[in-house]
Specification:
The protein is α/β, with parallel strands linked by helices. The chain has two domains: 274 residues, Rossmann fold (3-Layer(aba) Sandwich), CATH 3.40.50; 161 residues, Immunoglobulins (Immunoglobulin-like, Sandwich), CATH 2.60.40.10. It contains twelve helices and 22 strands. Strands 10, 15, 16, 17, 20, 21 and 22 form a seven-stranded mixed beta sheet that branches. Strands 11, 12, 13, 14, 18 and 19 form a six-stranded mixed beta sheet that branches. Strands 5-4-3-6-7 form a five-stranded parallel beta sheet, sandwiched between helices.
């Protein structure tokens, strides 16, 4: 047998191929390593959710029973595994279920003789679900506010002399009827919601807050996010905060089916936002326990099984949004067709107005709100709301909450058919003899407000919405974002906090 030469030298072609193989293997390994801390999916980049430590105190806000399991069931388990403290605040008891559906559900579980309310039943379901996640009854705070009433309390029922009262569902009170509420007989007003959240934050002293994304389509989720931001400004909270999403159109999560081996990611249209996205991978055990918690909400599982189970995935996703610094401009003329950089985007053609864009519907596709923001010069503050077109028959509203470091003032402005007016919706609303002015150009509404209204303001929250005045139905709205004014302005009116 002929021996092989041990001093064999590879050809240049062999060396080239070997080099390519080594580079390819190195690249694949690098991608795998990077995926552990940085994931690209559905048009968004995801960082790994930061490590939770035993010293962390995590405060989670859920608009309804089941949201704590859907959005944060995995994170709760991870926190408890690290011996961190977890407190869940349940904003409502989900008590707007109609009587017929409730009776049908009770019959389906052979419990037709149940004489409690849907709010009582969902309270018990929550305790079972959170127990499955590892929490005790003492880890859950029930505020007892009305299901489907939080947005009204945020915007129109702010004061205690103008309480919210629902006319449907089991809870038709203007105060909490539940014995287990955080505040007994809590009045149904926006100011009282904030009072409760501020007290909880001051007592609990969280290091991490997790709450609903106010780009969520459900008004209770939207409002909960705003209430938390409001309280965070008032308490001076500046630690970690993350949002989660539950409702967004009819195709999220995708697919709307039980797929426990699939991952989850925010809708691709969220790439329009300036958020930072986070991913938290769940172990097989954590996925199993999360599913058990979700199934514990039997009344909701009965009504929308596929939707709830679509959140049983191999990970959870969260977002953070930066504070926007307000631009100084050379007057409204200098703004022109391009809105200032101190603005933020909405998703185009989103679910809130999609059903109205069918042939014969109220809206055209171009009517969607898609951006809003704020700027200033030496004399005025400029608010702007942008869509592809502005319709005279619709009402466009600007909602501002001005914070001077101690107190909030409200500034609500309405624009319709070229006319602009202030709205006095609360005791702390700004009332003025100096009216704002409005200009409409290139699908953008520009509202000029005298600088004196912002005297002392260093931070503010702002949202815009579009309303059908015929029935007062909100057709589209933008999330509230936090804006920050400069610390010093060389002007007659100081915006220094």
């Amino acid at each position: 047998m002929k021996c092989i030469n041990s001093k064999f030298k590879p050809t240049k072609r062999a060396k080239y191929i070997l080099t390519l193989i080594i580079i390819s293997i190195t690249f694949i390994i690098s991608l795998y390593i990077m995926r552990c801390s940085f994931v690209y999916d559905n048009g968004l980049y995801y960082s790994s959710f930061p490590e939770i430590s035993s010293s962390d105190r995590i405060l989670i806000f859920a608009p309804h029973p089941d949201d704590e399991s859907l959005g944060t069931g995995g994170i709760i388990q991870k926190a408890l595994e690290k011996n961190a403290s977890v407190q869940v605040v349940m904003m409502t008891n989900g008590d707007d279920m109609n009587t017929t559906s409730f009776k049908y559900f009770l019959k389906s579980i052979n419990n037709s003789n149940y004489n409690g309310s849907i709010g009582d039943l969902r309270y018990n379901e929550t305790l079972k679900a959170t127990s499955a996640l590892g929490l005790s009854k003492n880890n859950i705070i029930f505020l007892g506010y009305p299901d489907n009433g939080l947005k009204s309390m945020l915007e129109t029922n702010w004061d205690n002399d103008h309480l919210f009262k629902r006319t449907t569902g089991s809870n038709q009170y203007n105060h909490s009827p539940y014995s287990f509420s955080y505040e007994k007989n809590a009045p149904y007003s926006g100011s009282n919601v904030v009072k409760n959240i501020v007290q909880i934050m001051n007592d609990y002293k969280p290091t991490i807050i997790i709450y609903p994304d106010d780009n969520d389509d459900h008004t209770d989720h939207f409002a909960t996010g705003v209430f938390v931001k409001y309280a965070a400004l008032q308490t001076g909270y500046n630690d970690q905060n993350y949002t989660y999403l539950v409702h967004k159109g009819s195709s999220w999560p995708s697919p709307l089916l039980y797929q426990p081996t699939l991952g989850i990611c925010f809708p691709c249209e969220f790439s329009a936002f300036d958020a930072h996205w986070f991913n938290s991978s769940l172990s097989t055990s954590e996925v199993t326990i999360k599913e058990k918690a979700i199934r514990s909400h039997k009344s909701q599982y009965f009504l929308m099984k596929d939707i709830l189970l679509s959140f049983v995935r191999t990970d959870e996703v969260f977002a953070t949004y930066p504070v926007i610094d307000v631009d100084k401009v050379g007057g409204i003329i200098s703004i022109g067709a391009d809105i200032p950089t101190s603005s933020y985007n909405d998703t185009k053609n989103d679910a809130l107005t999609a059903f109205l864009k069918e042939p014969g519907g109220l809206l055209q596709q171009s009517d969607d709100l898609n951006a809003a923001g704020i700027s200033y010069d030496d004399k005025n503050v400029y608010l702007f709301s942008q869509s592809d077109d502005v319709q005279d028959y619709l009402t466009y509203n600007f909602h501002l909450r001005l914070f001077n470091g101690t107190d909030f003032k409200q500034l609500d402005i309405t624009v319709m058919n070229g006319t602009v007016t202030y709205q006095g919706l609360a005791e702390n609303s700004i009332k003025s003899e100096q009216p704002p002015s409005v200009k409409v150009a290139n699908g953008t509404i520009f509202v000029t407000v005298p600088m004196e209204h912002f005297n002392g303001t260093h931070s503010m929250m702002m949202s815009t919405d579009m309303v059908n005045p015929q029935n007062n139905e909100t057709l589209d709205y933008l999330a509230y974002r936090i804006f920050r004014f400069p610390e010093n302005l060389e002007d007659t009116y100081s915006l220094r906090g």
